[in-house]
TrEMBL record:
<feature type="domain" description="DUF8055">
    <location>
        <begin position="5"/>
        <end position="119"/>
    </location>
</feature>
<feature type="region of interest" description="Disordered">
    <location>
        <begin position="1"/>
        <end position="31"/>
    </location>
</feature>
<feature type="compositionally biased region" description="Basic and acidic residues">
    <location>
        <begin position="1"/>
        <end position="19"/>
    </location>
</feature>
<dbReference type="InterPro" id="IPR058368">
    <property type="entry name" value="DUF8055"/>
</dbReference>
<dbReference type="Pfam" id="PF26240">
    <property type="entry name" value="DUF8055"/>
</dbReference>
<protein>
    <recommendedName>
        <fullName>DUF8055 domain-containing protein</fullName>
    </recommendedName>
</protein>
Amino acid sequence: MTSGQYDDRVRTLSRRAEQTRASLDPDPPDEERAMEILREGFGPTVALYCEGRTGESWVRFSDAEFGRLEGAMNDWLDCYAACYGTELAGTYSVRAAAELLVDTHNVRDVAVIMTGVPDR
């Protein structure tokens, strides 16, 4: 199966992350907004990867598509961390996020494990 059916969805998620970043409250913390970002952006981005890699049809993302997908996920994590006044120092693997989601079944737990935000 080709990944073309996923490319539009990835581009949409990426655009939404950019728009979200511009609308973030400059006075953190904003835990409610952080959860909204996880539910509406980060979670769907990781779920899209899971969808492409599970079931009967395994999708082969091109390098460019995979880069956009992983970039979008990292943009959403940046938005999430910004809700706590934190800037992330690196990038994260969408595959690692998907594996954590399968293990935890909780998008917030995935974000906290991957980023350490919020620091408790």
